């Protein structure tokens, strides 16, 4: 069995009226900007945004002033069942712009570009199961965080009483996501009124990883977004994102994205020529064994 993958470059400012794709599609925005609307709701996407759409979804698109490049993979029901994902358990339409979905989407994009069948299958299973959980728990707090498993349970009633509120968790996350030196977790714990060990445990329960790992994932994702659209020297990128040197950034990036930053940029930085004014888009298409 093979999956059909596409790299599609859309013309700047292009507007596409309401239409259906006629196939289930998972798309990763690689460059540019896109606004997609369906049933009165709009989503504005940026590089790293990931979308899942059902075959019959009616939607319209408006592309940004620089156009957009999208890597997408068509997901026939037979392929989903082969990897143990029930098509009826997936959302009809969902954009995600941050966190785990972006990391998983970019890992899948790299595997597709490398045409690595085993890696494609593993990454496809991971992101489809993520969207499957989203369909089952659409309002789970922290679902756009950088936790792997979407965990959101305290281990005891006492822990639930101690756990920071949703707004305070947001503050903890933003402290971890802020560029510069890592935050003082002891000070954060004092602000939230819990012991540092308790805060770390509750954070792991809620987001599926330690505060330190969360911060590393966020930094890796920030680097990935920059690499998608720029050609700055990698040493400068490392320093700009708070890494002590390139080797440190490369280790963290490779662990989270699956390959070194230079290789990642070479695969996905697709600042290709603008389509002719007579064309809406042009497409590169290939198939990947599954």
UniProtKB/TrEMBL annotation:
SMART domains: HTH_ARAC (SM00342)
Taxonomy of the source species: Bacteria, Candidatus Eiseniibacteriota
Name under which the protein is recorded: Helix-turn-helix transcriptional regulator
A Pfam family hit: HTH_18
Molecular function per GO: DNA-binding transcription factor activity; sequence-specific DNA binding
Start-end of Basic and acidic residues biased regions: 146-161
SUPFAM superfamilies noted in UniProt: Homeodomain-like
Coiled-coil ranges from the UniProt annotation: none
Region named Disordered: 138-165
Source superkingdom: Bacteria
Keyword terms, alphabetized: DNA-binding, Transcription, Transcription regulation
Cross-referenced PANTHER family: HTH-TYPE TRANSCRIPTIONAL ACTIVATOR RHAS-RELATED (PTHR46796)
Domain HTH araC/xylS-type: 185-267
């Amino acid at each position: 069995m093979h999956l059909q993958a596409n790299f599609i470059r859309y013309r700047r400012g292009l507007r596409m009226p309401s239409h259906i794709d006629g196939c289930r599609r998972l798309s990763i925005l690689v460059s540019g900007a896109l606004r997609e609307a369906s049933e009165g709701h709009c989503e504005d996407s940026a590089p790293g945004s990931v979308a899942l759409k059902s075959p019959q979804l009616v939607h319209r698109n408006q592309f940004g002033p620089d156009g957009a490049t999208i890597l997408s993979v068509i997901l026939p029901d037979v392929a989903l069942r082969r990897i143990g994902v029930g098509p009826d358990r997936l959302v009809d339409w969902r954009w995600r712009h941050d966190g785990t979905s972006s990391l998983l989407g970019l890992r899948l994009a790299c595997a597709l570009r490398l045409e690595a069948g085993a890696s494609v299958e593993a990454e496809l299973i991971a992101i489809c199961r993520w969207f499957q959980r989203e369909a089952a728990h659409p309002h789970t707090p922290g679902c756009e965080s950088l936790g792997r498993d979407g965990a959101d349970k305290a281990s005891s009633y006492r822990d639930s009483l101690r756990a920071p509120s949703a707004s305070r968790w947001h503050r903890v996350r933003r402290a971890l996501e802020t560029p510069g030196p890592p935050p003082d977790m002891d000070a954060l714990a004092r602000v939230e009124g819990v012991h540092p060990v308790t805060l770390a445990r509750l954070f792991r329960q809620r987001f599926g990883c330690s505060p330190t790992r969360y911060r590393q994932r966020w930094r890796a994702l920030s680097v990935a977004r920059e690499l998608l659209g720029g050609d700055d020297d990698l040493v400068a990128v490392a320093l700009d994102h708070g890494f002590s040197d390139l080797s440190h950034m490369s280790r963290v990036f490779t662990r989270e994205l699956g390959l070194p930053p230079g290789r990642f940029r070479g695969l996905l930085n697709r600042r290709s020529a603008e389509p002719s004014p007579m064309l809406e888009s042009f497409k590169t298409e290939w198939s990947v064994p599954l």
